[in-house]
Each structure stands twice: as C-alpha cells, then as structure tokens.
Fold:
Amino acid sequence: MRKFVLLFQCQDRKGIVAKISDFILKIGGNIIAADQYSTDPQGGHFFIRVEFILDGGREKRQVLLEAFKPVAQEFNASWNLYDQAETLRMGILVSEPDHCLVDLLYLWNAGELNAQIPFVLSNCEKHRKLVAGYNLPFYYVPADKHNRRESEILAYCLEATDFLVLARYMLVLSADFLHKYNKDIINIHHGFLPSFKGVDPYGQALKKGVKVIGSTAHFVDAQLDEGPIIAQEVEYVSHKDTRQDLIRKGRHAEKKALAHAISSYVDYRIIKHENKTIVF
Amino acid sequence: MRKFVLLFQCQDRKGIVAKISDFILKIGGNIIAADQYSTDPQGGHFFIRVEFILDGGREKRQVLLEAFKPVAQEFNASWNLYDQAETLRMGILVSEPDHCLVDLLYLWNAGELNAQIPFVLSNCEKHRKLVAGYNLPFYYVPADKHNRRESEILAYCLEATDFLVLARYMLVLSADFLHKYNKDIINIHHGFLPSFKGVDPYGQALKKGVKVIGSTAHFVDAQLDEGPIIAQEVEYVSHKDTRQDLIRKGRHAEKKALAHAISSYVDYRIIKHENKTIVF
Amino acid sequence: MRKFVLLFQCQDRKGIVAKISDFILKIGGNIIAADQYSTDPQGGHFFIRVEFILDGGREKRQVLLEAFKPVAQEFNASWNLYDQAETLRMGILVSEPDHCLVDLLYLWNAGELNAQIPFVLSNCEKHRKLVAGYNLPFYYVPADKHNRRESEILAYCLEATDFLVLARYMLVLSADFLHKYNKDIINIHHGFLPSFKGVDPYGQALKKGVKVIGSTAHFVDAQLDEGPIIAQEVEYVSHKDTRQDLIRKGRHAEKKALAHAISSYVDYRIIKHENKTIVF
Amino acid sequence: MRKFVLLFQCQDRKGIVAKISDFILKIGGNIIAADQYSTDPQGGHFFIRVEFILDGGREKRQVLLEAFKPVAQEFNASWNLYDQAETLRMGILVSEPDHCLVDLLYLWNAGELNAQIPFVLSNCEKHRKLVAGYNLPFYYVPADKHNRRESEILAYCLEATDFLVLARYMLVLSADFLHKYNKDIINIHHGFLPSFKGVDPYGQALKKGVKVIGSTAHFVDAQLDEGPIIAQEVEYVSHKDTRQDLIRKGRHAEKKALAHAISSYVDYRIIKHENKTIVF
Structure:
C-alpha cells in the first residue's frame, strides 16, 4: 500500500474533479485527502491536491504518470504525481546562527520531515559536531562576501539535492547560481516581509518601534527577499525588548515558519502561482 | 446561478468522491470547494463537504434532493444538500451580558452571517432598544431560576427557527426543552471546556491561577457544558488580572469563538459525529 | 480616595525612584502600581509611571502639581500628574467603516474606556442612529477629497476634546490641521506598518501573497502612516482569502489594536519618545 | 558592576517602595527595573521585585543581606536578595521524550538560560550522546513504575542542585522525595491544566474533541499536576489531527511554556503565593 499525491492546475471548468476521481477509482485507489482552490469558478485558474492510497511497488509511480497523461492533456494541465515513499533530498545551507539547523535536524530525526538530508553545508565550521551527531555529511565551504564560492557550493548541490533550504544562510545567492541550480530554494527571512528586507531586520524593527515582529519563509528568486511567501509567523514585543531580545524572540517565529514551509513542501502541499503560493 | 452545499457521511470505501463528482458533473454543476475527512481510509468513517454552483431557481434544491438519493443509497450514507440562498433562521437567546449579542447583530447586519434572525429573546429587558435598532423583534421573557418559562420560550422558537444560539443565556435549558425543540442549539461557554464547567468559570480560573483563559462554542446536549465542541479561543492572562479583567479579556475570546461557530454552522461546514465535530 | 498617575521622564541616574516614592509617602499616598524603563541604566533616558491612591477632593491635583515641581526640577524632568477621575475627552472621527466605532461605543458604554466622548464626527451620515442610541452628539461633516472641511472639523474639536481618535477616518488630516489642533491624535491603520502604507492595504497584502495581515494603532504625525506605533495586532490568512475575507478578518485586528491603544492612552500608560512609544 | 534582584513580600501599607528605594540609593545602587503587585492596596498582600546595579565583588551579596535585614523587619517581610552572577544550579530529569531537553540544552548553550546544569538524569539511556555533546554529566538511572529508585535520584540532586526541572519525566515523584529534596521542582505537563491531568493528556484531549490543546509549566507539589501554574501555552487543532499530530503540535507549546517558566525562575521573577504564582 503506497500513498500518492497529485498536484494539478489548469483553467477552471466543469468536470475536473469528476475526471480525476474517476481516474483514481479506475486504477483502484482510495482518495484519503483532497483540497482544491480556484481563483474564480467562472474562468479562473483551478488548483487541486489529491492524496490517495493504492497497492503497488516502486515502479508504480511511472505507470501512473503514463496513465494520467491523457487526463491531464484533456485539461491542458500543469501537474505532477508523487509517491510519498520517494522522499525529496533536501540540502541545507547555513551560516552562523544555528537555531533553525538544530530544529530541522531534530524534526528530521524525529521522523517529522518527510525528506532526506544529503548534507549540511556551512561557511561556519562550528556546526560540524552537531551534524556529525546525526551521522550526516558536513561540508565546510568558507564562503564570505568577497568570495562566495558558488561554483563549489553548486557542485555539492546540483546532483545530490532536489531542493535547498537556506536555514539562515547569510550570503545572497547570485542570479547565476539560481539559474544553474534551477530547482526550488526555500529561505527563512528574519523579518516580516514585505517589511524589513535585507540586512539586520531586527535592528530595523527596533528602530521603527514596532510592537510585533515576524519571520517569513519564502521561495528564493532573483530579487532579494521577494520570492513567493510560503509561511509567516509573529511574536509580540514591547519597548523593553532590546535588539538581543528581538533576536531571541524571533527565533521561535523563524523556526516555526521554516519548519511549516518545509513540511508543506516535502508533503507536496505547495503550488506556486504567479508571485504567490497556494499551500494546501 | 445558485450555490449548493452537500454534506455527506458514510463508511469509507473506494469511489465515493468519483461518484459524487460525477453526479455533480452530470447535473451541470461546477465544484468550487471540497473538503473531506476519514477517521481511517481503511474501514473508517468518511465525511465530505462539497460546494458547487449550478443554474437554477428556488425549486432546484428539491430536484437535486431527489436526484441524489440513489447515489446516497449506494453508500448507505447520511447526508443533506443545501441551497446557500435559503438561509437558516437563527433564534437568539441572551441574558444580561450583551457583548455576544452586539457582535452577532453587527456581523449579521454587515452581511457576514448567512442567516435570518427571526427574533432576539431575553430575560433582560435592557436589550430591547439595541434589537429595535436593527428592526428585529424582541421578546422579553422574564425567566429566572425559579421559573424558567420554557414552554413560553419554546412557543417562540419551535416553528420560527431552524436553530438556536445561546449568546450568553444564563439559564440551563432542561432535557425536556431540548427534546421538544429537537433542533441544534449552539452555546457559548465562557470557560475553556472541559475545564471550568458550570457557574462562574472566570472565578474558577482566577482561583486556580491559570495563565490562559478560554471560551468554548459547543452544541448543547442534555449534560451541562458537555455537547460537541465547535470552536475554542483563548486569551493570555497574568497574576495582575482581577476577576473583572478576566471577564473583559474573555469577551474577545467569547465573541470570536461564537461568531466562528455560527458562521461555520450557517455555511453548512459542521458535521457532528459521536461527541465531536468535524468543522470543514 | 482618589487615584493619581505620575508620568515622568529624565536622564537616568541614581535616586530617582527613591525621591519619587519618598514624595508620595510624605503626601500620604500609597503606590499601587509602578513601571519603569531605561534605555540604558548608565547615561540613558529614564521613564517611570507610578499609580498611587490618596485622600482628597477635586482640587488635590493642583496641589500635587505644585508640590511635585521641586522634585521634577531636581532631575530636569519632563512629567505630568493626572487624577484618574478627571477623564480625557475623546473626539471620534469616522468614515464609512463602522466596526471600530461600534466597538469603541460598546466599550465606553460598558465602562471599559476611562474617557468622555463629546461627539462622534463623520463624513458618512449613516452612523447618526447608532450614535444617537448612546445619547451622544453626532456631527455630520460631508468632507471628501475635494473639500476636506478641516476648519469646520477643527471648530468642533479644538476646545471640546483632549485628543482625537481616527476610528477609520479615510481622509488624511493636513499638516496645517495637526499644527492647529496640536494635541494627540490616534489613528488605526488597517495594515501592518511599516508595510502597506497608504490606500487599500488589504489589496496590497493580497497582491503580495502574505500569510499574516495586521493592523496598527499609532499617533498621527505630519507624515502619512509614520507616527509612533502604539499597538499592533495580526490575523493569519491563506491563499483562499479574498480581499473581502481580509477586510473581514482584519476587523478583529483593527478593533483589538485600537481599543488597546486608546485604553492605554486614557489610563496614562503611554510616553512618546523620539519616534517610538513606551507603553507601560 | 553587579546586578542584584530583591524579591520581597509583606502586608501592603504605605511607604514600602520609598523605604526600599531609599535603601538602594544609600548603598549606591541604581534601580534598573521594578515591578510590584498588591492583592489589594488597602490591607492586601504586597509583592515587589527590584533589580538594581551596584559596584562590588562576590562578597557583596552577604553584605547586602545583612544591611537589608532591618528594612525587612520593619515590614515583617518575607524576602531574598540575589546576585545575578551567582547562577542557580538546575538539575534536569527526563524520560524518553527529548524535545524539551534538546530545547533547554540549546538555550543554555546559547547563553539564554541564566543557570548552571550540574547534570542530566534520565531513565532512558539514549540521551547520553546528546548530553555528552554539551560536555555535561549524564546519569542513567533505570527507574520505572516498579522501582522508582528515588533514593538514588535524590543522592544526585540533593547537594548538587538548587532546583529541579522535570523536562518530561514520566514518573511521579513521591511525597517523600519532595519532602526530602525540599527545594523547588518545575514540571512541564503536556495538558492544559486543570483539564487533562494525569496520563495521556493528548489522548484525553482527542477523545473530548477539543479545538485547542495546551501545556502547563508548574511547580510540583504533593498532589499530581496540582502545584502553582507558572506558564501556559496553546496550539490550535482540528478534527483532522490524530493523536500523533497532537503530540507533534503540543511539543511547541511544551517547549515554549517550560522555557518561559525556567527563564522566569532563574531570573528571580517568580513569587509563589498560596496556590498561585506572581510572575513579574
């Protein structure tokens, strides 16, 4: 018994759900979860996520991909179909702050992130011991503003990962890197986007005197802190909080937003659409 | 163009979604939202809510009810199908505290509660003016612990309402009343059930020294504060808060939980199952 | 027995609390609450709020103001001393959206806002009935973008109010108005400042695809949506929420932030400092 | 320059703050934070926490303790005075679930818990490696329901710790142990007390169909899950959440409540009073 997920989008019209559910019935599957969304039921764009169980072995996904093609073509859909047992390979890039890394490794080890971690890569050697404690490869790449060592990093990531997580990686990845890697990258920004882009968001928040701080997990695109937002979390603050207090309180929000985003991603719950995300 | 909602439950098995969506396609409908839940995909209990649009007039619902019967019978399902334009009639019972009443009337007037309000009934005459301001009937029934005047209340409610809301009605309705009314009743309890049942929950919370207070919207059944929970909301408190502060802070939680529960109910999002609710 | 509040700020140094509490002891008062803050205990700026009870009649405040002067001079302090029985006069300006107005009038009537309301002024006549229901004066001033009628509004406000609340007043008050009124004005902005300034913040939020929306209560200054922030509240949203949903959800956050800000203000809990607020 | 904290309680009356602040001025201190609370300014019980800075070495605390005695006697107060550089020794007891342990060790290592950790003691050997990674002693004591090995545990704790944290320690400590240890013990209960005492609170919550789960950090006393509550945190849940989901979501609330409670404790922010806590 395997669990599959279909992510599917097309122009909205009648009969999509009927066709998809009929397909799943005919192959002997049982739908165990379904969620759909339309920007407008009359002429809008339609999105659906369907989770179903089905007998089968490792080869089953290929069979299904072939079988589903005609259905998808009928609706001129953009789609994919995933076997939840084939977990995504998540490469982690991290700089000095380690709270997100600690949290991700904990969750992964507890079986709560449906992903593989081929490696942790950092420009900060101090995480070696922590990563070794989980028997995971650790790559130390001493990148900094003057030498971002992107080709070196790319070499580690390109084949070995399905997506990357920037778990507080403090160097901006170049458009060239994004182009060459050409897969999804999820970043945690320690500010409440679209406020407080760029460096030192907590310092910016302090200066502005806000009463709530936030963090934002988002897909990376070529514009700094501008990709589609996946998850946001907040913490209340007061005049008493120093910059150090904001950093400390913000960690909760960062960990929660990033874990939520990654968890949604590896469970195939996210569809990107224009500059936004549908998170089922 | 009308919007219909199907609420449907049966033993889980393959093909339910396919059958339902095929039915909707054949009658010319377009599914605009769907949510499902199963206690266990293998042999559990299955629940689904489907929202679809369809051309048609007032008589359409009767046609659909007939047409859907064979589908439902095939799965031995418990179900109903609603026309969202046929709004439910919500009778409001309230005692002295008026914050929930004020909130409900505001939301209703703003078009945010998809319901009719045939009347507000109270054992406290002071609400007359407020209710008159919305051009709604107000029934003053001076019920108290010694004379609950239930037959009088029942006379107002029985034919004129589809369900009742106890928006801080401080008298317990008897099992006999519940039996005779025999429709849903939603209560807001100003405590975080299952803690703090019965009288003066804020006083109980204060005595216990809790750091979070809550409120609970739930269906009424014959046991006091024991029916299926629909929605809960919380507020953080501290040692500084007096009983009066808890009452004041608690109002937020009460209003939010009750509005959420009623809104879910009138949009046909709630299915009761055993002593719990599925809230889609 | 009257309750007084001292708000006091000066450069931080040793002995301030001792001097103030000694003063209160000597006049026969009992401190019932105190809160202090320093930007830096060594050479920073010091703020304190002290609440104390004391026997006395209406004239007592004048006596205390005189008596405290030498203490304040010793520290070269900026300060004021309030008799909590002398409630502030709060003028309310409001345009079409009425949720904040409804909430404020409810809270005021329930005795939860320690303020007087000399009038509600609106460029939208529909609120007349609601305001009349509370036996408060209602001034209809049909201001719009083309004719802001600020001198007319000023005439109502200047003598009769101690501060103004813009409870969703949709016209920007000019620098000239602010200069002439020259007292505090509290605004509720339906966006999470510093994001989403200006018009249609919910539309902006929707376009950006944020997962949390917010509202901000702040003092008004000459720059649009830029004055010191007093309170912020948030609500979680998803891809499913339409602009109308954001407006609806946002109302909770607006009401909560504005009520919190006003309540802090009338209880003399706020000190402005540079472009920020200390909210005790 | 050292930072001291005074915790002080007595019957409320005039002049307490004046006396204390005068004392601090005379010894050359500068008050940097103060918080007070009274159950009733007229004849109630008064509590105050004062934080001040002062020049001095390690011996200073003894000097201050002597010097303050006459002040305290004047008010017949219960009090203590702490040097924040003399950090408390926190013994950690933990069973199989490790999320609180991981969080506490992370926070401690990041310098965010003002405490020493003389050891981690567990009846589950698997934590040895994690604890060793922080260079802390790990004591494996295979206690279980049939043999609680309390004298063995007590031998580790009695001299070496100032207080204990039960970071999900699943065996109830006997009244005899509590009596012999005779210092504070902080427990995290994975339920929203006073609801869901005892075993499997998430299972209880699931059965009851609640829509919010919570966790409670509290002092341990002889009655199970009944000691004074220090901090509570909540998470929203739905019908979709399985027992496993509640456990997963609950971890957030448990970590947050426990970290908050311990952090308040080691910063001398908590006063126990009757069966409640004042948490400044």
Notes: Residues 88-279 of chain B form a domain with the Rossmann fold fold (CATH 3.40.50.170). The longest helix of chain B spans residues 243-266. Chain B has two domains: 2-83, 88-279. Chain B has eight helices and 14 strands.
